[in-house]
User: Fold this.
Amino acid sequence: MKKWIVIGVIIFIIVGSALVYRHFTREAGTDEFNASESGLNYSGSMGQLNVGYVDPTLADFGVPLYPGARTVSDKSSGKVDINGQKFLMSSFTSGDSKDKIVSFYRSQIEGAIVGTLDSEQIQTIIKAPNGSSVGIGTQGSNSYLVLIKPL
Assistant:
């Protein structure tokens, strides 16, 4: 269980790091970052990262989408390839409480493993038996969900 939680957190950190790197680094070097309307690519000292944006309403995450959840942006869903490890990943938001969302997933995913990651914000990670996972956190009055499915 902890292995999959750690893998989900590492993927989230790598993707976030690549995005932060793109916004704050303007120097030329061996790292290469390209973004377009269809996705983004990074190649450099951290390895390879490729993201092809997908329509989340057509994607199969291996777990149900929380009813009424909205995508964070039109670029918040993609097929992610990190050094050969492939995932389908998407970010959603909801006005419902984290507890209500966790209860929904507990009732919808038989055999779900539920864990807690305590960093700056407490996040709940739900791991489905099929390998998919859902990360749930809050910011202000909104809850945020990150759905990850290994491909």
Remarks:
- The two ends are 19 Å apart (CA to CA).
- The first strand starts at residue 32 and ends at 36.
- The chain has one domain: 2-150.
